[in-house]
Design a protein that fits this description.
Oligomer: single chain
Order of helices and strands: EEHEEHHHHHHHH
Largest sheet: 2 strands, antiparallel
Strand content: under 5%
Amino acid sequence: MTWGRGSRAHPRHVEPGDCGAPRPLTTSREVGSVAGRERRVFVVAILAGFAFGAADQYLGSRVMFGSHFLLGPWASTVSTASAPWLVLPFVFGCSQTRSRRAMVVGLAATLAALSGYFALMWSPIEGVWLSQSLPHLPALLRSQWANIAGGLITGPLCGLLRQRWRARRSWASAALVAGALCLEPPARWAAGQLPPPALVWEIEIATGAILALFFVVAGVARGGETAG
């Protein structure tokens, strides 16, 4: 836009957005509102992640109590599923407009989930008291190093993937997340690690298929709006 001499209007400064296109700077009030909303998302991600991890551990330990069945074998099977741990940071990554913050919120959600998992594992609910668990904490962390290291990688990655889908409709992001849900059961079957009941894995595949359909519909709709 060309501004005439003597005009009282001034062009707004712009900064590059996630898609590489210029994006107008917002007012201080708008910036404060966005920052406050993103901080609240971090709190929600931590609380939801902790509850998710605690629930995962709880389900895995509530198949039987003594000689009595509690929830049945499906609970343990749900607890062994890995794909939901990828979906968790993916969900919260959509709340962020910047890639770095999406990675941080994804990591926060995953670390909170791991904390909830370990906290319930070494809690009175599982018959373990704090005085008993603290001396064994280093051994617990060593035994779970693979899960912790995996979370440090997948948390930020999945948060970034969701932000990329929001900003650019990245089909790679959609394929990786939907594929994790659809392909985990076949991969476990091929490795001989597919515990019953089969209904749990059928539901996971169906969830992945529904998610893939959502991505296709949303991507086509976004493409139509851009073309229009």
